[in-house]
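Chapter summary example.
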Amino acid sequence: MSENNVRPGLARLPTELVIEIFSDLPDIESMQNFALASKNYQDILTANQCVIARRFATRTTKDTDAGVVRLAFLTCKARDFRYFYNGYGDEEGPYDGGLDFLEKYGQRGDWPSRYYQVHALTLLPRLSNEVEIVLGWVIEFMAPLPPGLEDEGFTCTELSRQRRLLYMIDFISTCLAKSKVPQGNNPASAVFFNALWDSFSQVEVFLMYELLSRVVQFLGTRLDLIVWPGAKVLVRSIFVLWGYKQHLEAFIVATREELSTSENRALRIPLTDDPEAFVKDKLPADPEEEGHLMGFYYYSPLQYDSLTKGYLHLRGLHYWFFLIGDKDRCESVLKRGPVWTWETGTNALQALLGDPVVVWQQDPALFNCPGKIGTKVPYYELCNERS
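The structure predicted for these 387 residues follows.
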């Protein structure tokens, strides 16, 4: 078929169908090539760029959550922005470029439609693939579900919350690296850190740091994944951001008490509006304060010793689900009660130093253990029976 016969047919396609075709193409280069098919297509792409870009981002991130899409755009724009650092020509304001970027794009609420540009998403297909790979590691190795929910897996909203945090990690890491912010204490960079933290709610920064620390600890035990080619860009961002650990911890320490006691809802308003983004009314002032939640996670008390000694128990992993889980699911687990508890009066943090006694709160037969609900059994006796 000749080109003269093809072009009239293409020109007759409805605009909405052309928009759908643009949105379903695998990458930005394919969009640009398709636009070359006719002047009409170029005009459609230009006039409907916001719609096409948002649909493309939604499909590519595998998530309809507005917060995920917004953070994906924000991350890609940061990676594409060339003027974060002004130090070569402006020694008195080396971070002005980064501050201008945060002032323009880091405001809460939705962006003006002109900010949603197709060309900004060139890196998104690769970045989205890497986010999904790391999210898979989180789900499999770092985010245990309470007994009874394992077969259900994470819900769409729970997955969205964790995707947001991974995009946040890449965005914050990119901003700091491209602005050449020193990792050590530097009073001149304080204004940049303040602007960066102010781009998000305190809860979002808190949860981002909680996830970041888990991923770093996990990768420390899986060196093969650090060089995994399918996720090397995001893994690099993770370790670059971890280099600013002291700045993150300073912010967390300064705000954690406020998060655990304050009724100020502004502390919990996310970058993009979502009334169900974070379900806890208060966050713990210290991970150990939530130690009682361990009984909702462990399938058997036999896992207590190994998890306590391993990285998975560090930084309160046992309450991760209660930070990002759907409200109804968190409430159902709490209503059901723990799987087991220590005998009354036992200090959980020092339980294994003595001769602790386990009390079954759920039917131990579910875990192939003898007894019934309410049965008390010495911990080490239980270990010997199962060894």
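To summarize the output: DSSP finds 18 helices and three strands in the chain.
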